[in-house]
């Protein structure tokens, strides 16, 4: 039996699938991710379990859809007794190490990892002090909408350009810690250790603020154009999306702000990719690369102004699709593109199979190893994603929403509770310009998709549970604000206001 592989899993935050050379971007901002793709398999139809951070990441850990683990929003805690892929690998004798971002709320900041060598930017507790971004406060996303809707553009778009985000400072710490740990592991293996390891490296970039250091911004300055996909006329667009865009202020941004923010985003992608390059170089120098399964993915996408939409929060491809590439010398073919419909959740099941670890009993995830080696292997081309909010945070919008998407073959169907559905034929309409949610000719397709998306998923029951949890979180938030408990694994960050000087 061959030696079990080491595993290096790199997970970024808010990386749009199409902003990568291996996915066809002509500006090629990701040479190191492209190297992984060239040595392995690129999954073209990978989706996340939720188009926001925490539920997507917690689903990745457990392999369960958000509604099966009661973790829907950025402020929901994942129960510590739910087994994760880290638990499974540890049970199989692996050393499990986490460097950087986990984005978990609550006292459990390990969720099965043996060791955490660097931390996150956010506190463990609701109500506790948030990270200080200085002059960039409110630029993390749709967190500061204008009181009169679209009349005021979102600050995360206008406060963009050259400078330094505190998030990148955290990523520098993560990169250094991951490299030091790989050097240590390499020395141990060279000295005769046979214990395999799984290291998860979590980067914050390219998450907004849309502020990139000079050298990275300048690489793309003048080369990044305006968004390519126009938004539909208001009378043809889904009313929930019209309301969300207006609330978030994304439709009010001027073209100079849009191009500057998009340029900075490219710079952030490139900066993140460079840090990945350092990690990969240390893996190779430590003599570990030949027996290591390397996987890169992101927790969700970024819309960067397409259809006058930014951030995530929707089921458009730019938001819900993720980059996913993996390489494993001698076990995964090289330079292959895979068109099967998969989910970020499947990464956990893939690592578990590669490690010969015990499967998670109630996981919805499927290992990718069979279809990586044979794209014609048995596989159901179907996956789901969920977006459920409450009214505990400004970023959620003017109303709480309960949405679920199913991708079935060529069709994407979106249930938005209280509204008409959306339906897109991605084969004939990859830009999702034509919503077939009310087209008479697609009634049977909608029925089949609706039956599937609602199977075991009750939006009314979910709404009742989410609202009850919202009331409970209000108590926890008040407790955190009054007691200010100490957060563990939190990296202090420093933001730079130099973006202001360069843009004014």
Automatic annotation (TrEMBL):
This is Sulfatase-like hydrolase/transferase. Keywords: Hydrolase, Metal-binding. It comes from the Bacteria. Belongs to the sulfatase family. InterPro entries: Alkaline_phosphatase_core_sf (IPR017850), Sulfatase_CS (IPR024607), Sulfatase_N (IPR000917). SUPFAM superfamilies: Alkaline phosphatase-like (SSF53649). It comes from Hoeflea algicola. Residues 5-355 form the Sulfatase N-terminal domain.
